[in-house]
Structure formats: structure tokens, C-alpha cells
Amino acid sequence: MSREIPFYKPLITETENQYIEEVLSLESASKVEALEKSFGQYIGAEYALAVSSGTAALHLSMCALDLKRGDKVVCSVNSFPDLPEVVRHFDAEPIFVDCEAEEYNIDLKKLDRVLTENKSKKLRAVIINHMAGKTTDLEKLYQIAQSHNVKVIEDASDAMGATYQGQKIGNTGADITTYSFAPHINKSVIQGGMLVTNDTELYERAKLFRTHAIGDGNGGSYDQVDYLYDVVDIGWKYDMSELNAAFALAQFEKLDSTITRRKEIARRYQERLHSVEHLKIPKASDDEIFCQFIVEVDKNRDHFAKELKKDGIHTGLHYIPLHFMDYYKKKYSLRVFDFPTALSIYQKVMSLPIYPAMSDEDVEYVCDSIIKVAKAHI
After folding, report:
1. What's the CA gap between 167 and 45, in Å, rounded?
2. Could you tell me the maximum CA-CA distance found in the chain, to the nearest angstrom?
3. Closest CA to 143 of 179, 109, 105
4. Whether 163 contacts 287, CB under 8 Å
5. E strand residue ranges, the chain
6. What is the CA radius of gyration of the chain?
């Protein structure tokens, strides 16, 4: 009889229960404020703003930039739908760029070319994501952005705890960096996100819009209002609840040990799967944090995944390219072959389970099943 290996399962300890109990007692200090303080110190960023989701953090980033109708924002076509979604909510235009073949991040040469082709005052920003925690060449990215006078927003939902040239992602030069505390969206226990920046003006704008743009009429934001208040713009309800913050704080305090355990699992995958027929696995690197472990199946990926599921092993897909999505395909007359690298990757990639709650026996079972399926794979 097969065992069940979910794609993701959170590691929950007494700390989560303790922090939640403290919130329910109504006697503890704010867990939202504690999370913001700890997160900002860990990243090394001047400001950290806790919000209701990673998507909310991205949307507030656009609010902070004062995005307008007709503005243009560039992003990778190999992204989760919330990247272009937050742009379209302003009736602004997302412009898609193909990804590169090895690490699946935005192709910086193509990005430079797209920015050149779309040069105008309406060109406002680039949103990039770090696929599976593999950091983009940020030095080159920032040079490109500066030369085209556009802001850089980094979606670090996959890169919480990752570093680039010794600096934590979120403190390397982006105008705003966003995170999600529910990176495995379809199996999330909580909803929560974080926005970090070193820019005071961007932070103040994001903080204002987080809670209905309520202030005291003198520039004070919602959390500073005692009795009388004013609404100074059109805002949103994007603040994080204390219960979500309690769980997120407990999980965040384990982040370094979580990354260590994911690296251990990744090393075992690499040891056992490096020569498996039909399978290409990610290269070993000390800098990887392995938010996902993405492999490539050379042919008939869907059949491979279905066979693993028969053994109780659940896999993920990161990502279905955005130009495959019905809305963007019709809205911008996109064709399947417009982004050939993303198309090629989409047909092959599959993400394996990798999370601290996996036991060594779970990891070995996944490897055994993959080896068995690969031998019979046509």
C-alpha cells in the first residue's frame, strides 16, 4: 500500500500554539508589530509592513508607485498570475518577457530589449520573481532598470531568506520587495505577506493604503488614530490579522532551520536522482534555498506526474506561462509560440515535495518512486 506524500505540509510546533493562545488571551503585545520588527531586522531593511497576503503586498507596491491608467509594467511570462493582475487593477498594462532556460527567471537580455522597445514616460516599473529561490542576477538587473529609469519590485515569495552577494533579498537595491507567508498557495494554513523597502515615501504610501487610507487629517496613519479620523484617498483592507501574524511569526522564527532542512532534502534528491533516465535535476549550489525543487521530465511530463500520484506523491507546476491564460491571451492577442523558452519549460517542469515536515523515510520513498516510474517511462 502506498503512503501519502503531500506537495506541502507545514511544520507546526508548540510555538505556533503558544503565540496563537497569547493572541486569543487578548493580553499579549501585538504579534503584527513583533513580526514587522523581526522581519525588518532579519532582512536589514529600514521598513517592513505586514499585510494580508503576498498579492496584497504587490498591490500596495503599485499603490505606493502611484500607478495610473495606461502605465506599463514589465514582468516575466513565467510568473504566478498575481504579478500582472495587480497591474491590471489600475487599468495599466503588463508587458511580458520570456524567461531563461536554466533557472527559469526573467531573461535579462530580453528584458533590456523590451524596455528599449517600450521606452516612454508610461514605462514605470519591472516586477521580477526569484524562481524556487534562485536569485536573478540583481547587479545586472539594477543596471538595466537604472538605464531605463524604471523602478524595481521584487516578488520574493520564493526567496525569503535567500541572499545575493552576502545581502539578504530585500536589502540589495530593489525599490520594494514583497513576500508571502503562504508560498504553496493551494495548501496554505494562513494568509499573510510582507512588504519591505528602504524608501520612506514608498513605505508611508503603502502603509496609508493598507487600511482604507484612514488618517488623522495631519498625515498620521490608521494605527496612530485615536478618535477622530479622516479618509485621505481610496485605500484597501490589507492589514494582517493578529492570528495570522502569530502563526507567521512562529514560522518565520524557524526560517533558517527550514532552509537548512530543505537543503538536506535537496542534497538527497541530487544524490539519488542525478543519473535517472528522463529526468534533469537542478544543479547543486550552496546558495540555493530550494523553496521548490523543480525537475524536468524530457517527455510526457503529465504521465510521469500521474504515475507518481498513484504512489501517493503529489507534485506541483511552477508555472503555467501567463500567455497561456485565457484572459491575457485574449486581451493582448498572445500566441503560444510568442515566448518559446517559457513554452519549452512548461512542457517539462515538475516540482517535487520539499519541506521540513518531510521525514528521511518520506524523501527516500519519493526517490524510490521516481526511479521506478522513470524505468517504465516511455
Report:
1. 11
2. 70
3. 109
4. yes
5. 47-51, 72-76, 93-97, 123-129, 151-155, 163-164, 167-168, 176-180, 193-197, 214-215, 230-231, 279-280, 293-297, 349-352
6. 21
- What domains are defined for the chain? 14-252 (3.40.640.10), 255-376 (3.90.1150.10)
Neighbours of 110 (CB within 10 A): 17
Q: 168 in helix, strand or coil?
A: strand
Residue 106, SS3 per DSSP:
strand
pLDDT in tens, the chain (378 residues): 479 999 999 999 999 999 999 999 998 899 999 999 999 999 999 999 999 999 999 999 999 999 999 999 999 999 999 999 999 999 999 999 999 999 999 999 999 999 999 999 999 999 999 999 999 999 999 999 999 999 999 999 999 999 999 999 999 999 999 999 986 655 668 899 999 999 999 999 999 999 999 876 565 666 666 667 889 899 999 999 999 999 999 999 999 999 999 999 999 999 999 999 999 999 878 789 999 999 999 999 999 999 999 999 999 999 999 999 999 999 999 999 999 999 999 999 999 999 999 999 999 999 999 999 999 987
Q: Cα separation of 64 and 204, whole Å?
A: 8
Look up the pTM and report it.
0.95
* Residue 139 backbone dihedrals phi, psi, to 5 degrees: -60, -45
